[in-house]
Amino acid sequence: MDYAELAEAAAGKMGLYRQDPSGWRGCRRESEVSVSWRPSAEYAGNVYRGEGILPASPLDVWECIKPVAGGLRTKWDQNVKDFEVIEVISDAVSVCRTTTSSAFMRVISPREFVDVVLMKQFEDGTMLSAATNVEHPLCPPRPNFVRGLNYPCGCFCIPLPGEIPHQRLEESWRQHWWLSAGRYAHIGSVLGNTLSVSVRRSIAKIHLALQH
Fold it and tell me: At what angle do helices 181-210 and 58-65 cross, to 10 degrees?
């Protein structure tokens, strides 16, 4: 399996969605964050995007969100129980496993995600983390976890102009719904509201982490 090629493909898809402003529809907007969606060009589902602004330098924000073992993500994000690197492919690419805790009084079981992750910095200072699910011989499914599969997804940390450093944090999720057309819009609306709350909480937690 060519992990580097898969990682570059995921990063390429994130770049295409970022560069093409057409087709995005806002489903939730508040003072701190906005969530929008557009139909996927690859399957019968939607792609979701959350955005928020943080008053901090790019490197400080990146330290909070970059997917590395021992990083700050597990400290401020209660959804992430553990993050480990399974194999380092190159300076920019690695295969990683993310473990999440159970939720809703264990109604949702603990989950694990095995992804190839690419980290990249662009000439304008923008930083990207892109990922997609893979299989790895050193990381078979564990009996007490549900193995989740991520579609290509990513997070951009984008510097904004101005005297005081501000960064736009932009995350993309790819959701695949196996639902009838009659239920599709309703579920999509509920998901948009849920993602808005999730993004808002993440922005607030990152802001708090930056102050410590």
Answer: 120
Interatomic CA distance for residues 171 and 158, integer angstroms: 11
- In angstroms, how far is CA 12 from the centroid of its own chain? 15
Torsion of the alpha carbons at 63, 73, 84 and 148, rounded to the nearest 10: -130
Q: Tell me the pLDDT tens digit for each residue of 17-51.
A: 888 888 888 876 766 678 888 888 777 778 888 88
Torsion sign, CA atoms 174, 198, 64, 17: positive
For 44, which DSSP code? S
Three-state helix/strand/coil letters over 121-177: ECCCCCEEEEEEECCCCCCCCCCCCEEECCCCEEEEEEEECCCCCEEEEEEEEEECC
